[in-house]
Amino acid sequence: MGQLIAKLMSIFGNQEHMVIIVGLDNEGKTTILYRFLTNEVVHMCPTIGSNVEEIILPKTCFFMWDIVRPEALSFIWNTYYSNTEFIILVTDSMDRDWLLTTREELYKMLAHEALRDASVLIFANKQDVKDSMKMVEISHFLTLSTIKDHSWHIQGCCALTREGLPAGLQWMESQAAAN
Ligand SMILES: Nc1nc2c(ncn2[C@@H]2O[C@H](COP(=O)(O)OP(=O)(O)OP(=O)(O)O)[C@@H](O)[C@H]2O)c(=O)[nH]1
Ligand SMILES: [Mg+2]
C-alpha cells in the first residue's frame, strides 16, 4: 500500500497534495468528499475501507482519502500518515457526546511523528441541524488554541448544501501555496 501511494504521488508530481479525511462514524466524511466533486448529494452507506478521489483545482490538486476510524484499520494507518500533508477532521456539530473522543483522536494524530508537518482543517459539519454547536464552542471544546505546532483552521459547514466547503478548500489551497 505504501509503495502504491508513493508511486501515485510520483506520477501526479509535486502539485498533488495528499489529504486524509477522518472523524468518527456518521459525521459526514464521505458526503463532504463527494460534495467536493459534484453538485448533487450522493446518498451514502457507512464506508467500509476507504474512498479515494482526486480534487483538481486550477493551481493545485488534492488526492483525498476518506478512511474509517483508526482503530478499525490501525495496521495500515502509518501508510496513510507517512504521505499526508493535510488532515480534514469532520465533526458532527450535534454530537456533543462524541466530541471528547474526537478530541482524543485529534491529539493522538497530531502527536504522530509522520504527521509532524501536516495542516489540519476541522469541518464542523451539520450546521443546518437545529441547536448544533457553533464553531466557537467546538473550538473551545477541542482546545484548538493550544495547537501551536500545526497550522489549523476550523470551518462550519453543511455538506448537504455545500455551505462552507469552498471556504475550507480555499484555506487548504492557500496553505499548499505557502508550503
Ligand atoms: N443534516 C445533515 N446531514 C448530513 C450532513 N452531512 C452528512 N449528513 C448525513 O449524515 C449521514 C452520514 O453521512 P456520511 O457521509 O455517510 O458519514 P461518514 O462520516 O462518511 O460515515 P461512515 O462512513 O460511517 O464513517 C448521511 O445520512 C448524510 O446524508 C449535513 O451537513 N447535514
Ligand atoms: Mg463514509
From TrEMBL:
<dbReference type="InterPro" id="IPR006689">
    <property type="entry name" value="Small_GTPase_ARF/SAR"/>
</dbReference>
<dbReference type="GO" id="GO:0016192">
    <property type="term" value="P:vesicle-mediated transport"/>
</dbReference>
<dbReference type="GO" id="GO:0005737">
    <property type="term" value="C:cytoplasm"/>
</dbReference>
<feature type="binding site">
    <location>
        <begin position="23"/>
        <end position="30"/>
    </location>
    <ligand>
        <name>GTP</name>
    </ligand>
</feature>
<protein>
    <submittedName>
        <fullName>ARF like GTPase 5C</fullName>
    </submittedName>
</protein>
<keyword id="KW-0519">Myristate</keyword>
<comment type="similarity">
    <text>Belongs to the small GTPase superfamily. Arf family.</text>
</comment>
<keyword id="KW-0479">Metal-binding</keyword>
<feature type="binding site">
    <location>
        <position position="47"/>
    </location>
    <ligand>
        <name>Mg(2+)</name>
    </ligand>
</feature>
<keyword id="KW-0460">Magnesium</keyword>
<dbReference type="GO" id="GO:0005525">
    <property type="term" value="F:GTP binding"/>
</dbReference>
<dbReference type="GO" id="GO:0006886">
    <property type="term" value="P:intracellular protein transport"/>
</dbReference>
<keyword id="KW-0547">Nucleotide-binding</keyword>
<feature type="binding site">
    <location>
        <position position="30"/>
    </location>
    <ligand>
        <name>Mg(2+)</name>
    </ligand>
</feature>
<keyword id="KW-0342">GTP-binding</keyword>
<dbReference type="GO" id="GO:1903292">
    <property type="term" value="P:protein localization to Golgi membrane"/>
</dbReference>
<dbReference type="GO" id="GO:0046872">
    <property type="term" value="F:metal ion binding"/>
</dbReference>
<keyword id="KW-0449">Lipoprotein</keyword>
<dbReference type="GO" id="GO:0003924">
    <property type="term" value="F:GTPase activity"/>
</dbReference>
<dbReference type="GO" id="GO:0005802">
    <property type="term" value="C:trans-Golgi network"/>
</dbReference>
<dbReference type="InterPro" id="IPR027417">
    <property type="entry name" value="P-loop_NTPase"/>
</dbReference>
<feature type="binding site">
    <location>
        <begin position="125"/>
        <end position="128"/>
    </location>
    <ligand>
        <name>GTP</name>
    </ligand>
</feature>
<dbReference type="InterPro" id="IPR005225">
    <property type="entry name" value="Small_GTP-bd"/>
</dbReference>
<dbReference type="Pfam" id="PF00025">
    <property type="entry name" value="Arf"/>
</dbReference>
<dbReference type="InterPro" id="IPR024156">
    <property type="entry name" value="Small_GTPase_ARF"/>
</dbReference>
